[in-house]
Write a structure and sequence with these properties.
Elements (H helix, E strand, L loop, with lengths): L1 H14 L5 E11 L4 E5 L5 E6 L3 E10 L3 E4 H5 L2 E5 L4 E3 L2 E4 L6 E4 L5 E9 L4 E6 L2
Antiparallel strand pairs: 1-4, 2-3, 4-10, 5-9, 6-7, 6-11, 8-10
Length: 132
């Protein structure tokens, strides 16, 4: 009976008290790549120029319900971008504004601002989600 009570307590604490990420604002930013590849033919004439895809990023404001703190790398892995072609990609980097440590605190009074990037993609971002 004690094992059932402990299991029930663990189940409730993991679901009912789990932190949730709430996006307040999202502004997508495309960072144009300055890199290009030039393909030459046998006579050293330009055959084609290939441009590197833009870096797909977003400026985000978010809160995390609950209380405590987490590593920024854990929060970074919570951001997902959905591209216009339906592909979903996980964030590759997250830089927090005004944060000099590797952890962030969360709770109702903490509103966070950051810049999250999803890598070089041909297709732009249609939606960003944050799911802890």
């Amino acid at each position: 009976m004690l094992h059932k009570a402990l299991y029930l307590l663990l189940f409730i604490s993991n679901t009912a008290f789990a932190a949730q990420c709430n996006l307040q604002s999202v502004s997508t930013v495309d960072i144009k790549a300055e890199k290009q590849s030039v393909i030459l033919d046998e006579e050293n004439k330009v055959q084609s120029i290939l441009k590197t895809p833009s870096q797909r990023c977003a400026s985000v404001q978010f809160t995390i319900s609950g209380s405590g703190s987490r590593l920024i790398s854990t929060i970074r892995d919570s951001f997902t971008a959905v591209l216009y072609d339906g592909e979903e990609i996980t964030a590759q980097s997250l830089k927090m504004k005004d944060n000099q440590t590797d952890r962030i605190s969360f709770g109702k009074r903490y509103k966070h601002e950051g810049f999250v990037c999803f890598g070089e993609q041909q297709v732009p971002i249609s939606e960003i989600r944050c799911e802890l």
